[in-house]
Amino acid sequence: MSVNPSDRSIRVPILTRVEGEGSLLVKLRGRTVQDVQLVIFEPPRLFESLLRGRPYTDVADITARICGICPIAYQMTAVQALEAAFQTRVPGEIRALRRLMYCGEWIESHTLHVHLLQAPDLFDLNSGIELAERFPDVVKRGLRQKKLGNALLEALGGRAIHPVNLAVGGFYRLPKVSELAKLIPEFEWGLEAALETVRWVASLPLPEFDRPYDYVAIQHPDEYAIIEGDVVCSDGMRINHADYEAHFEEIQVPHSTALQSRRIPSGSTYFVGPLARINVSRDQMAEPARRIADEIGWQTPCYNPFHGIVARCLEVVHAFAEGLELLRSYRGGTLSRQKLQVRAGTGRAVTEAPRGLIYHRYEVAEDGSIQLAKIVPPTSQNQAQIEADLRVLLERRMDESDQVIAVECEKLIRNYDPCISCSTHFLKLRIERE
Amino acid sequence: MSRTPNSLVVGIGSSHGADTIGWQVARWLERESTAHWDVKLALVPSDLLDWLDGRPALTLIDAARLVESEPQTGLPVTFATEAEARGSVGIGVAEHDGVRNAAAVEVRAERDSSTWWPRVTRMSWPDPRVVASLSSTVHDLNLAQVLQLADRLGWLPPRVELWAVHVDSAPESGLTDEWISRIGRQIAVELRAWAEEQLAATGGSGAAGGPLMPRDPTTCDPSEYTGSAGQGNA
User: Fold this and answer.
1) ipTM of the predicted structure?
2) Burial letters for A127-138: b for 16+ Cβ neighbours within 10 Å, e otherwise?
3) Where do runs of H (alpha helix) occur along A113-229?
């Protein structure tokens, strides 16, 4: 039975399975969506201010605390920005280990999101716990993959959560060959498991929700971009990463303690994350990922955010395939860290966090102390796009009950795997109908 | 002869403020002995899912606080008992029908207003107080959800104990070393007693790590340790 949307006020208190705390406010006047606000009330965490005056060596350890799920993204972007400030480039073997480390984070973060946060939506289940009851073997397979991501992070970072081994100039300690070699059989299993997961996800009915997105990601001429590249957009824009702030700006909105990003000068929203990455760089994925994407008939460009779950699974395949290659080719090394010439300067870096592009800029004084820090996480960049998507969803489903609308809003938001702790660095839902 | 793996002790928390308590107690237990238990530090509860590899027992130590029921939802208070919710000192719930080991342990109540004393609640999975907190968070996976997920997957050991250290009114300085060690000793006593029982049940071959340490009577003050599994408390 359809409902009259003009005379009801609806409050749905909790939106779950996202990282962090906030709420969603929807105002409907008649058949018009008057306002949609991602109300992020998690207190600002002030990391940028906290870094000011501290030695550059503190930055990786402090920025890692922004997120327990994706600390590598913050650490890696920070150390690479500082290396840029000191005009230092790390040698190829260090760079390869950094890519390997990032593969571990993608595996860990993506498998958690796919199996415990997003997949339950596809069966109208309330949680990963219910999914585990229905598909125990799928969930076990997913969690074992996640464990391998963590094992890799532990081997390279000293520990899986808030690793401590990444340094400006390289690593504090290089892993022993044996420490990485023992992961090879597990990663061989992981690659096969990831391929099976893609086939499983591809067999599931995904909602239709095509939208004209501007996908933004980094792109590199020689590899599937993870730790460096130009910033590109699906509309044809290509810029050097150092020019990021000339093309994207963060703005404060009254309803959120997190900044929101917009494009300059249009003020338009944009989309970052696995779907953006694959849309701009599918041909550069590892061969097993390309092959399985072809096998399941997955078309790009893909403008349906609900296919984000497929994109994540494909990136897990990529991460296992590239990770396996890097594990097999690791021969150890003698130089763990490049000698640095500490100097005054400004450094910028972009990398691809599991949830999307992340940008850091640091101004450093002559003594190596941080004078200014700017950190733009992926969720801040996606927030305005999420609000824009919700407007469209609400327009399409306005006649449905508030309960159904609330559930569908949650599902749509989870496509983005938002991390509110990072961006306040989300969610109670309230719908007001007039 | 294959040996049963050690039990697993996991401190949950972080390096910040009162949230360090789980880690501090776990580290104390690691320094005390690793003969019968292995110690890990978890930042988020989902870390546990990586570590439940056929362990015979799991002991969790976490900071806990009383959470006001949310008026909109009427959700239960996390880790709180009715007695605590009323503001009384100590733990009032001694048992729950049909739930093993639901008795609560009070290590020490507040003695006077000038000194802060920690209160510790021991719960055994599945404890209704933990289960009740399942839907009371907007974060992705809380501890209760992780335990329930592991339970569904058949990964939980037969014995799962949660020691909740109440930090509601903890001073900024956190727990003193004295109280870290008191809580640690109490857990060690419990773990050793359990290991002894397992050893006896398997004719001396089931537990790893060599001879068991005798119970240290100085670690357990009967006047403070007022409850044990299934016995209720004073």
Assistant:
1) 0.78
2) bbbebbeebeeb
3) 128-134, 136-157, 177-181, 184-202
Q: What radius of gyration, in Å, describes the C-alpha atoms of chain B?
A: 17
Q: How many domains does chain B have?
A: 1
pLDDT single digits (tens) A361-386: 999 999 999 999 999 989 889 989 99
DSSP-assigned letter for residue B56: S
> Are the CB atoms for A285 and A224 separated by under 8 Å?
yes
**Residue B101 in this model has a pLDDT that exceeds 60:** no
pLDDT at B80: 34
The CATH number linked to B138 is 3.40.50.1450
Question: What domain range is B56 assigned to?
Answer: 7-219
What is the bridge-based pairing of β-strands A238-239 and A230-233?
antiparallel
Q: What is the pLDDT of residues A324-359, one digit of tens each?
A: 999 999 999 889 999 999 999 999 999 999 999 999
For residue B228, being part of any structural domain is answered with no
CB B59 within 8 A of CB B163: yes
| Residue A246 CB partners (closer than 8 Å, separation 6+) | A239, A264
* Chain A contacts to B (CB-CB under 8 A): 11, 13-21, 68-69, 112, 116-117, 127-129, 132-133, 136, 139-140, 143, 146-147, 150-151, 160-162, 426-428
